[in-house]
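Working notes for the structural subgroup meeting. M.R. asked for a predicted model of this chain before we commit to crystallization trials. I am recording the input and output together here so anyone reviewing the notebook later can reproduce the run.

Input as submitted:
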Amino acid sequence: MQNNFEKSSAEYKQEESARKEEREKIVNEIVENLKKAQKDEASVEDVILGLSGIGSHESITLRRELLREYKGEYNGLIARSLINVGNAESMELRKELQDKGVGSKEIALSLTGVMTSEAMLWRRKLIQEAVGENNYNLLKNIAESLAGIDTTEARELRELLKSSGLKNEDLILSFTGISNEEAMEFRWKLFNEAVKDNRSFDLLRNIAYSLAGVDNDDSFELREKLLEKISQNYSSYEYDALMSIAMSLTGVKSQKSIDFRKKLLKKFGEREVKQEFLIFSLLTSLAGVDSDESMKLREELYEQFKTTEFESSERFLDSRGFDSYTADEKIKEGLRKEGIKYLLFNFAASFAGVNNSKAEELKKKYFIDNPDIFDIFTKSSFTESISFKATLMAKSYFTDHWPIFDAIVCRYGYEK
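Returned structure, recorded in token form:
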């Protein structure tokens, strides 16, 4: 019996060592790719945010280099890139950033997903600051920073936030990615209150967002109810409603989630709702999802967007400040290329937290060898197209949305 225990213990240590080695390999590749993207003149903002969730010594060094090079211009974003990173080097960097003028909001958001005792203590101090300054928005940011954290101390902090004046419609975001019974009961409680009292759309939207990363039967039942309620009562918010339901699937990998995404697209993809943005949200929701089925869906969404003819629609032209009756073909062609750029940005975001050979194949196909990119930059310089491709690579490492979504998918083992 003792020998069996020792054997299983040794096997566990060996497996854990192999997993750690694989994570380190992935992280090193990401950091090297971001350095290359920087040399190829990718967007600086995207290079910084591409480091989200990564806390290796090399990544901290790169942040410090960017800090010096840009003389404080991107300090807030550098802080934001520290989500899910709670090691000693990252905490030291946060303190330096705070000394350099980074505000409490950015510091709070930088702690998203970090569950160390030091991070929890920092949140308590920020709550005291928020109460003392009557800063409600800071309370919201602190709540968001608890996304994905389900510890006794996190539960205590949620109670403290509530007693400090935080409303339930904002507190719910602190439960993002948490699937236990307590979290699901709280979501249903708020949903039933919203139905009974005809509460604001913001509450329903935040309930949906909090379901990111949650993959149980109860969560899908709630998504169905949210979709039904929002469709019935908030037609003027239809785009926002669909986006929130789509984004609630971020990081959810099951076949049921793939089918639900397809259902949303089939049901709403051809309506006068901003269909191109529904496709964008569905793409981003695939962040953290690495199945073969998800890879197929990425390509299907990409191709469907290209057939939407959005650039000629009255709604799209008017939203871009053009008169749909007088817009000429040159304007429409420019808008078509703009749409493809945004499509590629969201296609890139769909790979956040996805690190396998199939993902690398699709990145090469769509970021390097894509004829659509050649088409966009037909009359531009070669350098500009190289910069755009580098930006796409950087964007493939984060969702480009709230930190709560990156907290669910950009996990490389530095949060504890």
